């Protein structure tokens, strides 16, 4: 337990973290990789380059400082991060390394302002927070390994089928190389892949959402090819999947993970709002919901640039045709004349609040996923409509961000 004196010191650093948090975490990652380059096998270098990982860590450190008197308040965030840690293979022995370099970064960025008292207080606080992560992750590792069809580490899977879904998205159907059972999953969860790409020094690890309902005897992921733009290079792993991965190839996969899952049973109308490849976890959800609660009121709205970018159309068209309780709407930013003939085409442009009010009720559970600008727009619309927080559910692809800045 932290003493009251140390908690008071931590709370006093909150304004400093608000100003210098990202500078501290940026320096932290520099120190971490300089001293332990082997950890580059675990971390996503693109998230580092874009600054997303540094911002996410700064937000987490800031939240820990704000809630230092009641760390149980950040337990949901701990669990969310821990799911990714378990999927990536973060182990207890990694935490002392992280703590050492985080304290060094605080000292280097703050200089003389980081007194011995402040460093000691943060060392003690980090120990408490690390113990919480280690405890939660220990149980997650146990569950992943001991569940029916479960496993530890990364298990080899064979690409049984590769299916183009749109101009930029392809689906990959995966079966275990050993032919044994596979673990079940909750709709909305993801798989994590360990990929060695020829010519690359470090192993790449990536999360991809499961895009089909569970219980099929295989896993399906649907991957968008991330093309380069400006100073952002093309997605290394997504390009490899699209351009070089073929049927019969082997991928190494950790057991399903993630906390972006549906409430069960659904007791309100459910609305799914997806933008681009953000549809992948939501398609898994809507398929499962309609299987488990046939007749339940469901609305699915998908937004894309145009029909060429609209994946998994066959899945959603079939669901709409066979489930009268599903209202399916397509919104294209720049529709072609052919797109406007789509049976479920409803709007040109973007999803906005005035239009949402015409097609769904505010007394619904809303699930949304997509590019960050899309998610911010959906969040602002729902909050502007007065939808309570406990009816708003969303998932970031990549490090946790903010929808309110």
UniProtKB/TrEMBL annotation:
Q: Which cofactor does it need?
A: FAD; heme b
Q: What is the E.C. number?
A: 1.14.12.17
The record, for CDD domains, names: flavohem_like_fad_nad_binding (cd06184), Yhb1-globin-like (cd14777)
- Kind of enzyme, top EC level? oxidoreductase
**What Gene Ontology terms describe what this protein does at the molecular function level?**
nitric oxide dioxygenase NAD(P)H activity
> Origin, by domain of life?
Bacteria
According to the record, cofactor stoichiometry and binding are noted as:
Binds 1 FAD per subunit. Binds 1 heme b (iron(II)-protoporphyrin IX) group per subunit.
Annotated site location: Involved in heme-bound ligand stabilization and O-O bond activation: 29
**HAMAP family tied to this protein:** Hmp
- Write the protein's name: Flavohemoprotein
């Amino acid at each position: 337990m932290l003493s009251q004196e140390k908690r008071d010191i931590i709370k006093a650093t909150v304004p400093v973290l608000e100003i210098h948090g990202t500078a501290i975490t940026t320096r932290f990652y520099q120190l971490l990789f300089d001293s332990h380059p082997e950890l580059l096998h675990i971390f996503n270098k693109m998230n580092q380059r874009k600054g997303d990982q540094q911002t996410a860590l700064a937000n987490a450190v800031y939240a820990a400082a704000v809630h230092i008197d009641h760390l149980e308040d950040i337990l949901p965030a701990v669990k969310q991060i821990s799911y990714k840690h378990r999927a990536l293979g973060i182990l207890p022995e990694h935490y002392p390394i992280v703590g050492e370099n985080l304290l060094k970064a605080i000292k280097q960025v703050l200089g003389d302002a980081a007194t011995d008292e402040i460093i000691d207080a943060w060392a003690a606080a980090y120990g408490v927070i690390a113990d919480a992560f280690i405890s939660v992750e220990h149980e997650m590792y146990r569950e992943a390994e001991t569940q029916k069809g479960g496993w530890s580490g990364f298990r080899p899977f064979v690409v049984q089928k590769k299916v183009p879904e749109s101009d930029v998205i392809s689906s990959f159907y995966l079966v275990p190389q050993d032919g044994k059972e596979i673990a079940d999953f909750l709709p909305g969860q993801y798989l994590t892949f360990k990929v060695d790409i020829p010519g690359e020094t470090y192993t790449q690890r990536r999360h991809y959402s499961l895009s089909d309902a569970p219980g099929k005897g295989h896993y399906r992921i649907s991957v968008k090819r991330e093309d380069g733009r400006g100073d952002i290079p093309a997605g290394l792993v997504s390009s490899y999947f699209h351009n070089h991965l073929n049927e019969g190839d082997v991928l190494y996969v950790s057991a399903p993970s993630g906390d972006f899952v549906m409430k069960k049973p659904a007791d309100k109308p459910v609305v799914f709002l997806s933008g681009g490849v953000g549809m992948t976890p939501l398609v898994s959800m809507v398929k499962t919901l309609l299987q488990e609660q046939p007749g339940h009121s469901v609305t699915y709205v998908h937004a894309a640039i145009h029909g060429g970018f609209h994946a998994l159309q066959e899945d959603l068209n079939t669901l709409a045709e066979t489930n009268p309780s599903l209202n399916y709407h397509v919104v294209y930013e720049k529709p072609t004349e052919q797109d406007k003939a789509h049976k479920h085409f409803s709007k040109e442009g973007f999803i906005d609040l005035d239009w949402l009010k015409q097609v769904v009720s505010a007394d619904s559970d809303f699930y949304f996923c997509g590019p960050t600008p899309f998610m911010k727009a959906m969040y602002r619309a729902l909050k502007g409509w007065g939808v309570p927080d406990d009816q708003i559910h969303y998932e970031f692809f990549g490090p946790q961000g903010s929808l309110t800045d």
